[in-house]
Amino acid sequence: MEQRKARLVARLKQAQELGLVRKDVDLSAASDLIRDSIHSAILRHTAYNTDAEAIESHLRGVTDIYYHGIKANDERDD
Question: 41 vs 22, which has greater pLDDT?
């Protein structure tokens, strides 16, 4: 897990350096957040036998919220 987290943090750092991720984002916390959100969704959908379409929709929602939470924009980074 630590190696995967380190790779994700490194990629987020690259995106941050390119101006795609806000400078004030804690990259370690961002990595934990996306991993834990997906893990939680997998457990919940497995436990309740959710259909594939609902899982897909949920994961799209999680990634959309995550992306909009960390992406850089002119108003926040000035």
Answer: 22
